[in-house]
Amino acid sequence: MQSLRQRMLAISREIELKRFLSSQEVIDRDDRFGGRHFKPLPVVLSKGEGVYLWDIDGKRYLDFLAGFATVNQGHCHPRLVKVLREQAGKLAHTSRAFYTEPHGEFAEYLTKLLGWDRFLPMNTGVEAGDTALKMARRWAYRVKKIPNNKATILFAQRNFWGRSLAAISASTDPNSYTDFGPYIPNFEKIPYDDLQALEKNFEDNPNICAFMVEPIQGEAGVVIPKDGYLKGVRDLCTKYNVLWIADEVQTGLGRTGKRLAVDHENQRPDILILGKALSGGMYPVSGVLADDEILLCLETGSHGSTFGGSPLGQRVALEAVKIVEEEKLAENANKLGKIVREELKKLPKDIALEVRGRGLLYGLIVNKDLAEGWDICLKLRDAGLLTRPAHGQIIRISPPLIINEEQLREGLDILKTTLTKI
């Protein structure tokens, strides 16, 4: 009995000690036992509220990444926390083996808000992308009557929509696809923002069933196409009977200053992919919107997900989208995005090589002669601002959309001061 008591006390002391690990000890443990597919910035976060994050030592930071444009509604938005707690205490998961009230409620709200017939929920952005491709191929064979196993899908070069086998098969980034072959067949890549290349491919290959493209390429470094590109994509897809799949996992739901990025040209894709901010980072929710002719090609048993459409996820997502609408976050992003551009343009040309973005999705290309992007983000961390580089030298600026002008200017001042003092 004494031995058991001693062991329990020892375990209790060990647990107590683990509650007070230093930042470096937390990092070392993560590096020892976790996968190494991602390189985190060395800061250990423990709390988030609104536009701020705190590390385990209590230091506060302005968040200029927002979980890669996921936390549009801000960290731990009170409405999301409330709904999550209420639904988790009522009914969290059943699978789609049964009907639940939140599933249809969210689908009705989202389809009426955005203007498609149906919504098919998944969990992560890459799952939604895979779903869209399955939907397009099924449509290709059953509606467009493409010969079996000949359906081809086009992608824009430098696209990024995840790291599943399908996503890396569509990638032109060697970091994503090297040593993971063989790849999905009949995936072809063409230059982004090039309508001539798009039409040539349509003319040359009648078996093309879909063109999947980001209205703004995010991971590629916030690359914005020329005015008229989205309209041209719509017109060509209609002309050649090809489905336009718009990947708005990152750009959707207010991020670019409009409800959707395609709204900047008032265009409507055949399939819309959403994720990230669809649940405000509170619970993984993604999905695909399309009309009956396309979405109903996936009949019972042809697709599914254990957690996709869960009561908890759909209730959280419904509240998350309502927050975007009711708090006018797209309008805020549009207004404050102009300040981002104005302030960043003030940086010396030998420091800031290019500023590009829309709404509150910006990329600042910093001269490599000044410093590596990673090192710049470390200095920004020390100054109280968190973000990450893309492709080495592109500093991401994508704060939560609830940010106000004072907070935004504070973050931009940190960024400008840090860059000019390196």
TrEMBL record:
It catalyses: a 2-oxocarboxylate + L-ornithine = L-glutamate 5-semialdehyde + an L-alpha-amino acid. The keyword Metal-binding does not apply. Homotetramer. The gene is LOC107266309. Keywords: Aminotransferase, Pyridoxal phosphate, Transferase. Pathway: Amino-acid biosynthesis; L-proline biosynthesis; L-glutamate 5-semialdehyde from L-ornithine: step 1/1. GO terms for biological process: L-arginine catabolic process to L-glutamate; L-arginine catabolic process to proline via ornithine. Its cofactor is pyridoxal 5'-phosphate. Signal peptide: none annotated. Its EC number is 2.6.1.13. It is found in: Mitochondrion matrix. One of its GO terms (cellular component) is mitochondrial matrix. This is Ornithine aminotransferase. Belongs to the class-III pyridoxal-phosphate-dependent aminotransferase family. GO terms for molecular function: identical protein binding; ornithine aminotransferase activity; pyridoxal phosphate binding.
